[in-house]
Amino acid sequence: QVQLVESGGGPVQAGDSLTLSCAVSGLTFGSHAAAWFRRAPGQEREFVASINDDSSKTYYAKFVKGRFTISREDARTTVYLRMNSLNPDDTARYYCVVDSLIFGSASASDFNSNDYWGQGTQVTVSS
User: Fold this and answer.
1) What pLDDT digit, counting tens, does each position of 7-60 carry?
2) Which uninterrupted H or E stretch holds 64?
3) pLDDT of 56-77, one tens digit each?
4) Of all residues in the chain, what percent are helix, strand and coil, respectively (each to 5)?
């Protein structure tokens, strides 16, 4: 059974940094692309960042503007999202997702409800 467990969220002040972690189990993580999405209250889920299986490609939403970095550590079957310069607009529940197909392109459109999703971790940024 594939499981994704996110951690690292919490309440922070504007300008602070956080690193989210997503521990993956139940599959050969090194062959799968991964991504982070988020959902703010009253809004639809949106793409944040993604990384392919060998970390050679990363993609970011425009709103990231160089503030976030996605990475992965296959030995620990973990994907990370380092978030700097947080602002109140970043308040959301952040979800980790792993592509159910191997060696995917990691483009945002690759990730959908057929993939493996975690339960999310809440990030709340106050001004």
Assistant:
1) 999 999 999 999 999 999 999 999 999 999 999 999 999 999 999 999 999 999
2) none
3) 999 999 999 899 999 999 888 9
4) 10, 45, 40
